[in-house]
Amino acid sequence: MSATWETSFVAVSMLIGEPVDNVASALGGPGRKPATEWLRRLGEASREGRARALARVISELAVAIDAARLA
Q: Which are the contacts of 7, defined by CB distance < 8 A and separation ≥ 6?
């Protein structure tokens, strides 16, 4: 999965503890795909599943930031 800005936004928001409803609202509500679909799946996942999904996106974001810094 390549992180879009929306999935990165969701991951960072969840990481800092934003309520799920606020994150969905900030994205423009439930009609916003793919991030709201990913957000819904996060809600259905086990704690370990959520942690893995968030870690995957956060790690992609960290690599992109590091690459931009080195460029």
A: 1, 34, 35, 38, 57
SS3 for 1? coil
Distance of CA 42 to the CA centre of its chain: 9
Chain segment 30-53, per-residue pLDDT in tens: 566 667 777 777 888 898 988 888
The DSSP annotation for 5-56 comes to HHHHHHHHHHHTT--HHHHHHHTTSTT-TTHHHHHHHHHHS-HHHHHHHHHH
Q: What is the DSSP string of 33-44?
A: TTHHHHHHHHHH
The reply to whether the predicted model has a pTM over 0.85 is no
